[in-house]
């Protein structure tokens, strides 16, 4: 079987490992196909397509739908860089109307020329020297704003998430493996206010509720859809298969693998 290849040229600050998008990202898929999930929607990107993944969102790539060879280029537009850029070019912005987590961009020859122009700056490891980071990021941002001026309202909005419907947000995003602090921030609340509002709404602590919801989903996927524990635990928000298995057995009294062999009746209490 051919080994998978997943190459990423990252231009800008390092990305966090968690599924919280802290900064705006320009994402270009050079080779392959990938799929992901964000804000209740599934997105698929094919070779040659690109767009903006916006900050302060939860997003996850679906490894089961990634082709064997994937090459991507990611530019990180962090707030420090954007503020410097805005001050330099004295840009005036208007509100950005779309709520999409991934903003697809139309094909344009300027983008293709820009991507080609990056090649001479890569070193032997396929990385770009830090000395050229801001030069190429500024060039890309100028191109984006020339072709899509309304993106200024997205990039140069430095506000924090506002208070939103907690129940709807949590029911949509409970499978994401991020901290309670992140959930609080994304719903426009302090940690203490989040815990208070959460308990008033669900009559349960966030940690207990998240574990229960994820395990109930796991039971359904294993017992009714015949999926394997190793195929589902990551997408359910568990960091390791062993943690998932221990939690599942503690909740239901059986190992998750008991539902994937010859069918056995297990009550989901």
Automatic annotation (TrEMBL):
Keyword Transcription: yes
GO molecular function, one term: DNA-binding transcription factor activity
Keywords: DNA-binding, Transcription, Transcription regulation
Pfam families: ExsA_N (PF22200), HTH_18 (PF12833)
SMART domains in alphabetical order: HTH_ARAC (SM00342)
Stored PROSITE patterns: HTH_ARAC_FAMILY_2
Domain HTH araC/xylS-type: 164-262
rRNA-binding keyword on record: no
Protein name (database record): Helix-turn-helix domain-containing protein
